Amino acid sequence: MNPDWTKRIKILTPIAETGHCGLFLVRMLGSIRLERGLLISTLQQTYLIGARSLVIIMICGFFVGMVLSLQSINALQQFGASDQVSLLVGKSLFRELGPVLTALLFAGRAGTSIAAEIGLMKATSQIEAMQLMAIDPVQRIALPRFLAGLISLPLLTAMFNAFAILGAVMFSIGVMGLDPGIFWSKLQTGIYFGKDFMGGVWKSVVFGGLVSLIAVYFGYYAKPTGEGVGTATTRTVVMSSVLVLIFDFIMTSFLI
Amino acid sequence: MDKNLKDPIIRIQNVSFQRDDKVILDDVSMEIQRGSIVAIMGPSGVGKTTILRLISGQLQPSSGSIEVNGNEVSAMTRRQLYDCRRDIGVLLQNGALFTDLTVFENIATPLREHTDLPEKAIRERVSAKLESVGLLGTEELMPHSLSGGMARRVALARAVILNPKIVLFDEPMTGLDPIAMSTVSSLIRETNDQLGLTSVIVTHNVNQMKKLVDHCYILAAAKLIAQGSPEELMRSQEPAVDQFMNGRVDGPISFKYQNDRNNTAASLSET
Hints:
The complex is a heterodimer. By secondary structure, chain A is an all-alpha fold. Helix content of chain A is 85%, strand content 0%. Chain A has one domain. Chain B has one domain: Rossmann fold. Chain B has nine helices and ten strands. Chain B has a six-stranded mixed beta sheet, sandwiched between helices. In chain B, strand 9 (215-220) and strand 10 (223-228) form a beta hairpin. The longest helix of chain B has 18 residues, at 178-195. At the A-B interface, helix 6 of A face helix 2 and helix 3 of B.
């Protein structure tokens, strides 16, 4: 996978692999053809990896919203400012927790299944069979999954945020008895469309590309054995989680 | 096959192949005649599959040349290689059917990919091929519900759906029961003769090959040690050939580790 000389100098290996992954991305994007087949397979994959992740995303979002409001009310009460809870919950959700937590969940739920699926196709020579039929597996297998991830994650983030707000509403208004009018008006006036909302959307687009790129890359270059597929899935989760958090900091420092 | 002797469709000249420091093939030359069924035999891990991968352009030889249909394979760009592969059907070990597609979609994949045929024509051609392998009516089954022999026949139908000139078989009989073996074997002969193909079979199953093929190549320890018709080889006095053809333990072919070069799949370069 890497040129020989990089294996000897350990520190260069991740750099070479990053470059290799970048070339893979270029090759994948270069194989885009505007045709019906790509549209259909991308939609299929969006259903498989996006729609099938919905339930877990909604449940997690709901509980994150509840715990956020529980913590915020608890802290804000000390200053007699518990009516600001929707502002605090909304800002932290839209800017940080929504995109980041959804991306981490997505890496665990969809990233692993992409990597394992492609790795298994490789282990059972299906990828090789495609190449021998003069079908480019990067175009047919990797590209639709990558695009589907890119589309799915922002949509899933929106669902996560919506359910988190719902959780916050249920807890603050339903359990803690806060005034619904204040809750909603603080949320409406305090959250800015450009900085707070769109900032989160950009993040989720980048995370979506990142996680699905890592998943298809590790799956595609998995060793064609059972162990190789296992390694590929593990590395997908670990690498995408780490990189999501690193990219989160980098993007935040530009977007804030 | 003698009548076609001057018309090789695959010409392998002085090919050597090395991976790291291991010599997998050493100065191998073959001329595979148009219309014939040829077997490449030898003990496991001797580089038989490597030859198929060299012919299909998945691997590049360290030295020597491989011509398919008069074109040098190693000099091709990826685009040219993909064009060239439309004339080559491949049946991989265990068939390598796409597990997420039905039997029909599996066989239709090359047609959808490389032709503009309307759906009706695709349906007709797939049905015709399925009938020729005796599996009409299995269209909507998924690969996991097929037996080993059926999966192999579906894969054969998929390999020849584009009417290629050459079909490469990688261990087509492995893991099949005797009846399925004979079925696949006679299908290979039928399709080869009906469609005017050239078939190259990599195998270590001597008994099936004796009945099926026109010409045999035997590899041992990275070298081509013998070639000829199955009858000639069965009568051969050459110790290594005799050992292999008759499956004897003692002989010049050693089964110790140094001859075990069984790692081609692991680090296949991607093309």
